[in-house]
Amino acid sequence: xxxxxxxxxxxxxxxxxxxxxxxxxxxxxxxxxxxxxxxxxxxxxxxxxxxxxxxxxxxxxxxxxxxxxxxxxxxxxxxxxxxxxxxxxxxxxxxxxxxxxxxxxxxxxxxxxxxxxxxxxxxxxxxxxxxxxxxxxxxxxxxxxxxxxxxxxxxxxxxxxxxxxxxxxxxxxxxxxxxxxxxxxxxxxxxxxxxxxxxxxxxxxxxxxxxxxxxxxxxxxxxxxxxxxxxxxxxxxxxxxxxxxxxxxxxxxxxx
Amino acid sequence: xxxxxxxxxxxxxxxxxxxxxxxxxxxxxxxxxxxxxxxxxxxxxxxxxxxxxxxxxxxxxxxxxxxxxxxxxxxxxxxxxxxxxxxxxxxxxxxxxxxxxxxxxxxxxxxxxxxxxxxxxxxxxxxxxxxxxxxxxxxxxxxxxxxxxxxxxxxxxxxxxxxxxxxxxxxxxxxxxxxxxxxxxxxxxxxxxxxxxxxxxxxxxxxxxxxxxxxxxxxxxxxxxxxxxxxxxxxxxxxxxxxxxxxxxxxxxxxxxxxxxxxxxxxxxxxxxxxxxxxxxxxxxxxxxxxxxxxxxxxxxxxxxxxxxxxxxxxxxxxxxx
Lengths: 256, 322
Fold this sequence. Notes:
heterodimer, A: 2 strands, B: 8% strand
């Protein structure tokens, strides 16, 4: 099963490379780099322009994470439904490959593509850091990216799993909702407190289900800048990934 | 396949165990330390002289977004949230006044969001914040406990007077105290100019000695009298409330911070440049400054402090007596 999932993943990844998604991501990275390196930015916080390396790095780190999550949704949404649409799945069934291996391979390809995209954006951030004379963050940025990749992988895997069971539109909505709840976890908590009542209770429930993706982003940022992180957050994300991966076994397509 | 399933299941189990083990439950150690730190100031703060003002008398509720951790002495009890909002305040519960504030972790995390929403600057102008994300620390949180505890002390002694004051303010249903100040005090350019002038005299007085100090104080107080004649009764009542109730709480808070963080940090955060801004913050500052002036001129003033005459009455008494 392992090898068949690997072959499926490789094939799906190769197809990605042939498509133009990579150009769009590279363009985004260049745009980000341009925004970072510009002395005059329009980013303001608390009514004041955000300046200085640390502030800009923090803003850009959060931005890379957000864009990375959006790309994870976009890159992961169509892969599995398209396979079935093109009837590629039949070629797999005749080889007696199990559904979970097939879906697992495709989901892994989605995760890899999402991480690749996020990696390009993160590399742009690294270039900015070096250009600003802060090469010291370069080395810690490598493990920091691994921490950040947990969040991106979660979004990608969640969307992939949803796309097995639900139509593209529904999977996209679920994926976007989970991404928004995760990325703006703290803000949603505030909102929950404002809502109160049944709405607040429902919100509490969603916030319990969706891991704090922004917490992971913050942990990665803190690691890159030499501050300590809470290992609990990392384990929560790993466990959340494991839980979502169960969907690969639970959700099945009738066609097979 | 069987082996894969076992490995997969085991991985999940190990991750679950790690998640549970590394999680923190109950009130975090940080908040417990903050509470202990605040309580450890009791002896020093008692020397201030506000009669029967002991932090240990009040329960402190740390709200973590889901529940309140109610702390008194060594006891920590988890309870349903009383307000379910992130706010630092004094609240009447279980037949007594209690201190309510977010846990340190929540408060720190909120700074990010508030900053992004521009609420920090709003909070600073309203007087509810003197710190930014970079300067807020555990000692500042401990000092905030003292601020709110002092409100609890005020409420337990002067609730009737406070109610009478607020009846004079006569806030509408949709109105906040900020609205009254902005509309009736800040909008009056003459009153605003007098306020600026009063602050200048008070600051000069703080740095002067002897007779000159008294002269500056008296000049400031005479300007305050002039302001009162210009403003409406509701604006006067609101100003009195903010200057004396919030200003004295800021005075207590600043002294707690001074003990914990030292002279330099205290001066940076509490005695920085004064800038006239719309909203309540200026009254917090003015009240605190008047408290500090009384420290210089009238030892033990805290025992006489009441809402009957407020800071101005005490200062007048001190400066006019020969």
